[in-house]
Every structure is written in C-alpha cells, then in structure tokens.
Design a protein that fits this description.
Layout (H helix, E strand, L loop, with lengths): L1 H35 L1 E4 L4 E5 L3 H8 L3 H30 L6 H9 L6 H12 L6 H8 L7 H4 L1 H26 L3 H9 L4 H28 L4 H6 L9 H11 L3 H31 L1
Antiparallel strand pairs: 1-2
C-alpha cells in the first residue's frame, strides 16, 4: 500500500511539469497545423480563410523543396561522419596520459559553448575570407590561389563550421565510453599478441557502438533544424538552402504564414522519419 501511495504522490508531483511540457510542445504544433490550412498574409490582408491542402501542395511543388531536403541530408550526413570519426580519435587521444590533460580537455570541449552565430562569423571572417582569411594566407604561402570557400565550396564550408561546433559534444560522450572500457581486457589481448589496430577493431570499437549511436541520434535531431550558420555565412545562396531556411524565407521574406506553416509540418514529418529510423538502430545496439 505504501508503494502505491508513493507512486501516486510521485505522479501528482510530476503532473504540473508534464502538463507544462506538453503544452509547450502541443500548443505551437497545433497552431502551426491550423495555420498550414489557411491563407494567412499578415501584411497583405491577414487571415484570408481556409485553403485546405493548397499550402502543402504549393510548398512541395516549389522548385526549392527537394533540393532543400537533399542539402539538409547532405549537411547532416557530412557533420555526423566528421564528428563521429574525429570524435573517436580525439577521445582515444584524450584518454592517454599527458601533461596538462585537464586543460587540453577543456580546450577541446570549449567550442561547444560558443553561439552558432558567433562561430559562423569567426569562420567566415577570420578563416574563410578569400582575401584576409587564415586559409587564404596559407594557400598563398604554398603558391596556390585562395579558395572562395563560401561560394566555391559552400556546402563543405557549412559542414566544417557545424562540425567544429559539434565535435566537442561527440568527443565528450565518446571519451566517457572510452574511460569505461575494461582495461584488463585490453591488457589480456595485448599479451595474446593482438596488434593495436586489432584491439581497436575488435574491442574498442564494439564497446563504443552504443555511445556512437547516441551521438548520432542526438546530433541528428538538432542538425535537421540548422539555420544560424547558413543565415550568417551564405544566406541560403550557392546551394546551401536547407528545409529550415526555406521555411524561413516563406514565412519572413514572403510573409506567408500559411505556406511556411505547411513547410514546418513537412519538417516535423522529416524529423520523425529520421528519428524512427535512428531509434531502430539505437534499439538494436542497446539490445546487443
């Protein structure tokens, strides 16, 4: 009886937070769904009535829709590849005893706390500027013509900028997993004659599988809504217009709330499809 009472009390105390969280999520989603079926032009007549699925048809029929989906997935895939690969390497490096290990770890993790707009401006003006940027000076030092990163390699530039922001997060999660590795198992494999690459492939990498999956899942959820870096650097030009940026253009630049809301619902659908796919992978790794 005491256990049942304690469970009821716990549910009662959690109820306000759950209700607030549901309201926080459901109210904006409901409003977005409502506006997606209406023609709402705040500066050109306001609410002009119900239009059914016309906004959805117009949005998906736009010549920018499928390229924006493709660009979004390319950026997400590129960032995930870089952060996972280099995150594993950095985690293994930071796990080794070295002088000033604590300071090095803080410096590696620090970029994660920089605002996206600030990091994008730093990369745009200090590193990638084709005239005065650091990369331009390095290219000139070797006698090569500097690359105009944000126009000639726009998507690659966005991937580099975003990867720099998210690499510390992946490193931190993977470093925690590396530190939980059974050292006796590594020592036993070394005594049995296993080479470093064999120990990495058959012991370390399988142990990191769950952590890598969690990194991929969490980062993907946030990367699907990437916006600030593109807004600050390319403004959606040179093939960098993602689905989120396309929605921004429809809502703020075109002042079409209904059309932008339909795009928001498409973004929710895309996020859920990716989330379900990743959750399947997570479930398999966690059950292993």
């Amino acid at each position: 009886m005491a256990t049942q009472n304690s469970r009821s009390a716990a549910r009662l105390m959690l109820a306000p937070a759950v209700i607030l969280l549901l309201g926080w999520m459901l109210v904006p989603l409901t409003m977005t769904l409502w506006f997606s079926f209406r023609k709402y032009l705040p500066l050109r007549g306001g609410d002009l009535g119900w239009v059914g699925f016309d906004n959805y048809i117009r949005f998906v029929s736009s010549i920018s829709f499928w390229p924006s989906i493709q660009t979004t997935l390319i950026i997400v895939g590129g960032v995930l590849t870089i952060t996972v690969v280099f995150g594993v390497l950095l985690a293994l490096l930071l796990d080794q005893p070295m002088w000033g290990q604590g300071i090095v770890r803080v410096l590696v993790i620090a970029p994660f706390f920089v605002m996206p707009t600030v990091s994008a401006l730093v990369w745009k003006n200090i590193f990638m500027d084709p005239v005065n940027g650091l990369f331009a000076h390095l290219w000139k030092l070797f006698g090569a013509t500097p690359i105009e990163w944000l126009s000639q390699a726009s998507i690659q530039s966005i991937i580099i900028i975003v990867s720099w922001q998210w690499l510390p997060f992946a490193t931190l999660i993977l470093l925690t997993a590396v530190q939980s590795l059974d050292r006796d198992q590594l020592e036993a494999s070394e005594m049995d004659g296993a080479k470093p690459l064999q120990r990495f492939a058959y012991i370390i990498l399988p142990h990191l599988a769950r952590a890598m999956t969690i990194v991929v899942l969490i980062q993907t959820i946030f990367l699907l809504s990437i916006f600030a870096e593109i807004f600050v650097t390319t403004g959606g030009a040179f093939g960098t217009k993602t689905l989120t940026y396309l929605i921004f253009q429809r809502v703020l630049e075109s002042q079409n709330i209904g059309l932008g809301s339909a795009g928001g619902i498409y973004a929710v659908i895309l996020a859920n499809i990716v989330a379900v796919f990743l959750m399947r992978i997570v479930g398999k790794n966690l059950d292993a």
